[in-house]
Amino acid sequence: MWEIVPERLESVMRRERVNQSQLAALVGLKQPSIARLLTGETRTTRFVDRIASVLNTTPAFLRGDTDDDSASDLVADRRTGFRGFAPSPDAVQLDEIDVAFGLGGSYLDSAVSVRKVSFSREWLRHFTDTAPEHLFSATGIGESMYPTIHTSDVVLVDRSQNTARMADQIWACVYGEVGMIKRLRPLPNGGVEILSDNPSVPPKTAFDGELHIIGRVVAVVRRM
Fold it and tell me: For residues 163 and 89, what is the distance between their CA atoms, to the nearest angstrom?
């Protein structure tokens, strides 16, 4: 067990733009455990190596043994640009796409870049048994799915599920050229109703191939 300096942990989380819930999911902890490390209520954890890996720093920096917050022994994947330590046995690599899916709708009019990020296999199993190669994460933006999904929440999408057979599940989809995260409701006439959880946003109906389903949203990671 190693002690973590709360201020060091907070500084690298801010640098990497990782919030408490995201860090917890990536290392296989619960969000309150990260909160206690940040407040100093808990100062020791056996996850220090994994936390350092996710945050692109070193255990020595988190412990306060050095002032250098960079990880000199990072490895690079030339295909994805992802940098990170050799993953722990529990870690799996998922695609993270840079598209901010509009909870109301956002135009997909530019190239999409993809990088690899580490997730805890145990954490993923809480939501899906789908193989990691069929999963990706992205960021939602907008208020039309509030209160279910908030703007800047990270969503986990299962690409192996791409047909809306059950009503009112939440999906990542493209309607026209607009990427969005919505509830979908198949209709008897062959159309699909596109629904928002915010009651102020009116529904839409897609017909005849207007709607392309990317995958089903199986988890949401939220800043606490």
Answer: 33
167 part of a folded domain: yes
- How many angstroms separate the CA atoms of 133 and 92, rounded? 9
CB 148 within 8 A of CB 170: yes
Between the ranges 36-50, 99-113, 186-200, where is the mean pLDDT highest?
186-200
Q: Which residues pair with 66 in a beta bridge?
A: none
Domain stops at, among 13, 48, 76: 76
Domain holding 187, by residue range, is 87-221
What's the predicted TM-score (pTM) here? 0.58
The maximal CA–CA distance of the chain, rounded, in angstroms, is 66
- CA 41 from chain centre, in angstroms, equals 27
**pLDDT in the model for residue 113:** 59
